[in-house]
Amino acid sequence: MFRSEKNDDAVYFALAEIAKEENKIGEALNFYQNAFGIDTSNVIYLQELAFMQAEKTNFEEAEVLFRKLCKKEPRNLDFIYGYSKVLIYNKQYEQAIKQLTKLQDQAGTVPELMMMKADLYMELKNHQKAEEALLQLKDEFPSNQEVLDKIVAFYKQQGEEGKAKKY
User: Fold this and answer.
1) Distance separating the N- and C-terminal Cα atoms of the chain
2) Within 13 Å of residue 89, how many CA atoms lie on the same side as its CB?
3) pLDDT tens digits, residue range 92-125?
4) Whose C-alpha in 46, 73, 149, 164 is 20 to 30 A from the C-alpha of 25?
5) How far apart are CA 7 and CA 159, in angstroms?
């Protein structure tokens, strides 16, 4: 087995990987934190910590870690998406929309992301922006049944049955 050296981040990382493999999440998290504490420039350690905190529903801590990840690698789609998800869990809807927009700018229009944005606009009571997002999505994916169903549900929720019947 590994001998735990207080200044050897690689040993802590290896121990974290073993603990994770054995489904000892608490131990794995501690080992990742130790590894990252020694080498704060290591993106892999930071990534493991961020995703593990999110998995453990420690969303406030995960938000801080994902923000750091996005600063280190601003074009990494997985990090931006992870950050947007924890922002949603933390009810930081406007920030989440900004991250989803950044993701969309890099990845193009993705139905799931646009529907998430529409839902967030609804949470913020910005029905006009929600409608704009859905109609933009319809323009790009006119035959996507999930998109059409979402638009119908949106209009019904708004009490606009006439508009809903168009789809």
Assistant:
1) 63
2) 17
3) 999 999 999 999 999 999 999 999 999 999 999 9
4) 73
5) 62
- The residue type found at 85 is K
The token pair that represents 28 in the structure block: 């794995």
> HSE-up of 54 (CA within 13 Å, CB side)?
23
121, two tokens: 């606009």
Q: How far apart are CA 54 and CA 116, in angstroms?
A: 18
Classify 27 as helix, strand or coil.
helix
Cα Rg of the chain, angstroms: 20
Which residues have CB under 8 Å from 62's CB, separation 6+? Answer: 50, 51, 53, 54, 82, 86
What digits encode the pLDDT tens for the residues 66-90?
999 999 999 999 999 999 999 999 9
How big is the CA angle at 65 (ends 72 and 120), to the nearest 5 degrees?
100
CA 82 and chain centroid, separation: 3
Contact 143, 111 (CB under 8 A): no
8 A C-beta contact, residue 167 and residue 152: yes
pTM surpassing 0.90?
Answer: no
For CA atoms 42, 99, 109, 158, give the dihedral sign: positive
Is 36 within 8 Å of 46 (Cβ atoms)? yes
